[in-house]
Design goal:
- This protein is of the alpha+beta class and 286 residues long.
- The chain is 52% helix and 8% strand.
- The protein has a four-stranded mixed β-sheet with strand order 1-4-2-3.
- The chain is elongated, with a radius of gyration of 44 Å.
- The N and C termini lie far apart (99 Å).
- The relative contact order is 0.07.
Length: 286
């Protein structure tokens, strides 16, 4: 049976059949084929007021996300947390849950700060443990130091930190300045390896004028294994009021200056040793 648009012998009868089919679970396509009504407007008029069966409803892609978002919001989650959990935009989250009451914050600001500081302390503790582990493993890699290895280390150490003669200022003497106790101990061990007699060594503290000079003398005397009376008059650095000093407190001991008397020949040998290292370091590795 074919019907032209708007012209039916029995429209109400046709509508009753269409509604019966609709209530039986038929889709519009099935009703169209059954009644041979191919005009969309007419077909819509025939089933007007009768909802489509559930199976014909096309599910919305985000319905599941929306329900999950609402569930999480009711559990007290924030917009950012829901966004991260579901992988959707923050604007979508806001649209889905804006009718829900704002959740009570889980923590007060003080509690949040305490938790943050606690987490930071744990992270720093873990980082400190890792530093200790790395340094301990590296220390084991060095093993027993041979005389030649100490000799080479001392040459490089002096050329990095010791005084050097310049073409415009010839000073062929051995003098070494440093604030690191370990560096000073290594340097003194190197001088002993070179058979430099202890009586040829001179010691002087270079320190800020506001520091505890006597304490610095005692500190460096212990490091160098000498008597405080062996120290020359200290060199005091004048304070600049525009400068904010950070080298203050009980850990500040200034620098120790170690000189070697009658050391012109020794200085020339050091220069030669360093030139030898420099030349050899440029050779291809074999």
């Amino acid at each position: 049976m074919t019907h032209s648009l708007g012209k039916y012998a029995d429209f109400e009868g046709l509508r009753e059949r269409a509604l019966a089919l609709r209530r039986a679970g038929h889709s519009l396509r099935q009703i169209r084929d059954e009644l041979q009504v191919h005009n969309k407007d007419t077909l819509q008029r025939l089933v007007e007021g009768e909802p489509p069966p559930e199976w014909t409803k096309r599910p919305r892609a985000k319905d599941d996300l929306r329900e999950k978002a609402r569930e999480l919001r009711q559990q007290g989650w924030t917009y950012n947390q829901i966004q991260a959990e579901l992988g959707c935009s923050k604007s979508s989250v806001s649209l889905w849950v804006r009718d829900l009451p704002k959740p009570t914050p889980r923590y007060t600001q003080e509690e949040k700060l305490a938790l943050m500081q606690e987490g930071l302390a744990r992270r720093r503790a873990a980082e400190d443990e890792e530093r200790v582990r790395i340094k301990a493993a590296s220390r084991e890699e060095i093993g027993k130091l041979t005389d030649r290895e100490l000799f080479m280390a001392g040459v490089a150490l002096y050329w990095a930190e010791g005084s050097k003669s310049k073409p415009y200022a010839r000073r062929e003497r051995v003098a070494f300045v440093n604030s690191d106790p370990g560096v000073i101990r290594t340097y003194l061990a190197w001088l002993r390896l070179l058979d430099v007699a202890p009586e040829r060594l001179g010691f002087r503290v270079l320190i800020h004028e506001s520091a505890d000079v006597d304490a610095a003398h005692r500190f460096w005397a212990d490091i160098a294994d000498v008597d405080v009376s062996d120290f020359a008059k200290p060199t005091l650095k004048t304070h600049n009021p525009k400068t904010v000093r950070k080298n203050i407190g009980n850990d500040y001991h200034g620098c120790l200056v170690v000189t070697v008397a009658q050391s012109a020949k020794l200085y020339l040998r050091i220069e030669g040793w360093w030139e030898g290292i420099l030349v050899q370091s440029q050779e291809p590795l074999r």
